[in-house]
Specification:
Length: about 100
């Protein structure tokens, strides 16, 4: 039992999968829900005649668009600093000449 747990843990460490896979999947779900909600609000905005409700709907659409851009930016930053991307983008430093004595 202990060996099985240890092997399971080691297998997770040795996998070359993206460690942020769950985070990415959750963010994609959230962004898709925001997109669906924005589409519904746009349809509702077209059909609405009351000016006060139109203002509220426009405000909600603006907030949703800000949330979407923030979510995309967070995913890009996380991708930029993820361990897999840093392994692939190694920078080879030039060798410096030896010091002159």
């Amino acid at each position: 039992m202990i060996y099985e747990k240890t092997l399971g843990y080691l297998k997770k460490l040795l996998k070359k999968e993206d460690p942020d896979k769950d985070y990415k999947d959750d963010m994609k779900k959230i962004l898709s829900k925001l997109k669906e909600k924005a589409l519904k609000l746009e349809i509702q905005l077209e059909n609405e005649s009351n000016e006060q409700k139109r203002k509220n709907i426009k405000l909600m659409l603006k907030v949703i668009s800000k949330q979407q851009t923030k979510g995309v930016r967070l995913m890009q930053e996380r991708e930029k600093y993820s361990p897999l991307s840093t392994r692939q983008n190694l920078i080879i430093k030039p060798e410096l000449s030896p010091p002159i004595l």
